[in-house]
Design a protein that fits this description.
The chain is of the alpha/beta class. It has ten helices and 18 strands. This is AAA+ ATPase domain-containing protein.
């Protein structure tokens, strides 16, 4: 069963940072709001239950200063969390390095989204979670972490860049209470923290969000060769997109064939399982990632196993 365990205090934490005109608009529906988008001189925009809606309320300097003053100094990656919550506040800056836009992402602690995938999660030796932005990868990753912690206990370490997975503050979010986490101040420090965690704390498995852009790929490849399994999210709609993203290719065990110019698999992937996130509650699982990659580089299209709430295809469409 999927359960939202987000507390009232977590929702109040968001309401407490909002200027009056925004607060008046969202207070009664904060349980439905996913994003609050504030760009200086433009109308306020909300994302509610997947729909983006624009309101005739112009965002001004005072609105941005109010939020920035409430959340405190943004980190080098332009992000900030709220202690005890999973929420994320992201800032954009003008040429004078003054805040001219803010995105408030209202995160929820959702338990059970990974339960339909439990048999694959429990048996996996490394999982690649693939999906485009805002499709629910991090929400799924948290629940995967919960299940893997049941299997490995303290053998699972989370490398938490910007505290996206376990939340801000000195203590992980209650949903992540069984997790060992290593906080990372910003993405640029991710590789160094990963190296120290593997070298000094002997994990059986490491779990990370959004890998491939901060020097972490060689370390993850080495970790897999040392017997440490890896769970990580990567941007892309399907596995083929990962193969077409050069920073991520080494984790797929693939390199360029100098003779043909195409890809060839020369090693085992870092992961043995891949989960494509196609929508909320819609997953395509590849339980043998090596075979799926071999099929892809050979020009094929691996089918995978559909899990979750996939719409039925009408018979006339199947026939065509």
């Amino acid at each position: 069963m999927i359960t939202d365990i987000t507390s009232r205090a977590e929702y109040e934490a968001i309401l407490n940072i909002l200027p009056g005109k925004v607060l008046d608009l969202v207070a009664s529906r904060i349980h439905q709001v996913e994003e609050i988008v504030l760009d200086k001189g433009q109308n306020l925009r909300l994302k509610i239950d997947g729909l983006r809606i624009e309101y005739p309320l112009e965002v001004d300097d005072d609105d941005l200063k109010y939020i920035a003053g409430k959340v405190g100094k943004f980190r080098g990656d332009g992000r900030r969390g709220l202690s005890g919550t999973l929420h994320r506040i992201s800032a954009g800056f003008d040429e004078k390095h003054l805040v001219d836009k803010i995105t408030v992402r209202v995160a929820r602690a959702i338990m059970g989204v990974a339960e339909p995938l439990r048999p694959y999660i429990e048996q996996a030796r490394g999982i690649a979670v693939v999906g485009p932005p805002a499709v629910g990868k991090t929400t799924l990753l948290r629940d995967i972490a919960r299940i893997r912690a049941e299997v490995l206990s303290s053998g699972l370490l989370i490398i938490d860049s910007s505290n996206e997975i376990t939340g801000d503050g000195d203590v992980p979010h209650p949903m992540m209470k069984r997790i060992r986490r290593f906080k990372v101040a910003g993405p640029e420090y991710q590789a160094e923290i990963l190296k120290l965690a593997i070298r000094n704390h002997g994990p059986e498995e490491v779990l990370m969000d959004e890998v491939g852009y901060n020097g972490d790929v060689p370390l993850l490849v080495s970790a897999a060769n040392w017997g440490v399994s890896v769970i990580a999210t990567m941007h892309g709609s399907i596995i083929r997109d990962v193969l077409e993203n050069p920073p991520l290719v080494p984790m797929m065990g693939v390199s360029v064939d100098e003779r043909t110019g195409g890809y060839v698999r020369r090693a085992r992937p870092v992961f043995n399982t891949a989960i494509e996130v196609h929508g909320k509650g819609q997953y395509l699982v590849h339980t043998n990632l090596s075979a799926a990659i071999d099929e892809l580089v050979g020009g094929g299209n691996p089918e995978g196993i559909k899990v979750g709430r996939w719409p039925e295809i009408p018979e006339f469409q199947k026939a065509s």
